[in-house]
Amino acid sequence: MTDATAEAVTRVQARPGRWARISIVIALVVGAVLVACGVALPETTDGVQFTVADQVGVAGTGVLIAIGIMCFARPRMVADASGVDTRGFWGGYRHIDWDLIVAVEFPPRRHYARLVLPGDELIPLYAVQRADGEASVAVMEGLRALQRMYH
Fold first, then answer.
1. Do residues 87 and 118 both lie within one domain?
2. Which of 24, 26, 38, 114 lies 20 to 30 A from 89 at CA?
3. Model pTM score
């Protein structure tokens, strides 16, 4: 990133790309299979009696598992002049001011980028994933440019 481009960066956003698409497909398949199993339950030939409650339970379990799988599409990261707001798989956003951030790094053999805070505290940026390739590189360049400007 050149100096002119670095000065133009005012906001950087990231969300998982590849894993979000994969989790959506897997969630749809798992949910559809378990809902179909719930609908097909009374059609067994082995003498077991299934009720509507059993059908609803199996279908409901499928929906809950699909929602859990969708959590892999949930991480977000937004960085601007005020700092970095990051959200993981669970919970809400966490705000970190630029004056607290010592480094923005993406270590080798790690799946996610991270912020280094004083005392070697690490904040993972689950939205910036190695699997996203060039998109992650652009986000890291933007984050580092913002850190140089505001730190």
1. yes
2. 38
3. 0.74
Cα 77–128–13 angle (5° rounding)?
35
Q: Locate the DSSP E strands across 35-120.
A: 76-80, 83-87, 94-96, 103-105, 112-117
Q: How many domains does the chain have?
A: 2
In the chain, beta strands by DSSP E: 12-14, 76-80, 83-87, 94-96, 103-105, 112-117, 121-129
28, two tokens: 């749809």
What is the gyration radius of the CA atoms in the chain, in angstroms? 22
Do residues 146 and 101 both lie within one domain? Answer: yes
Non-local (6+) Cβ contacts of 11 within 8 A are 78, 79, 80
Q: Do 76 and 86 contact (CB within 8 A), yes or no? A: yes
pLDDT digits (tens, 9 = 90+) for 104-138: 888 888 888 989 999 888 989 989 988 888 888 89
What CA–CA distance (Å, rounded) separates 147 from 137?
Answer: 15
